[in-house]
Amino acid sequence: MSDQPSSGESQEKSSRRGSPWIGGAVLIVLGLVFLLQNITGFELRNWWAIFILIPAFGMFARTYRDYQNNGRLTAAGRGPLIGGLLLTFIAAAFLFSLDFGNLWPVFLILGGIALLLNAFWTG
Predict the structure, then answer these.
(1) Which of 15, 52, 73, 80 could form a disulfide with 91 if both were Cys (CB 3.0 to 4.6 A apart)?
(2) What is the pLDDT of residue 19?
(3) Helix H segments across the chain?
(4) Separation CA 70–CA 114 (nearest Å)
């Protein structure tokens, strides 16, 4: 047995190293929200919705990695992009106490964007 990691193990470790920035970004955003509340009196009642952004940032990171690896946006990157946009929209709606009754057309718009991305950039 050798002490050298197999190629599968090294790929798994390198993929884990790319995700700590997500946790750091979430902590920074939370800190900024609480600082803004303390300094200005601005109140964000649904601050917990920031946690919805964690998987959204992960999806954006996956899209970016796919773009970096292939030099273009492929089908493997388009799905996470639309999912990240959807989760970001939902988080923003909760954070700013927006009425989903007025915002439901955004879901149609995001669906249309997904269809257009798949139609124009097949691959």
Answers:
(1) 52
(2) 63
(3) 7-17, 20-40, 53-70, 75-95, 100-103, 105-120
(4) 19
CA–CA dist 29, 34 (Å, integer): 9
Side chain identity at residue 25, one-letter code: A
Is residue 74 within 8 Å of 80, Cβ to Cβ? no
pLDDT per residue as tens digits for the range 18-44: 567 767 877 888 888 788 888 887 777
Instruction: Report whether 19 contacts 65 (CB < 8 A).
Output: no
Q: How many CB atoms lie within 10 A of CB 89?
A: 18
For the chain, give the number of residues: 123
- The whole model's pTM is what? 0.64
- Phi, psi (degrees; rounded to nearest 5) at 12: -65, -45
Q: Which two tokens stand for residue 120?
A: 């124009």
The tokens for 20 are 């700590």
Task: Give the mean model confidence (pLDDT) for residues 65-72.
Answer: 90
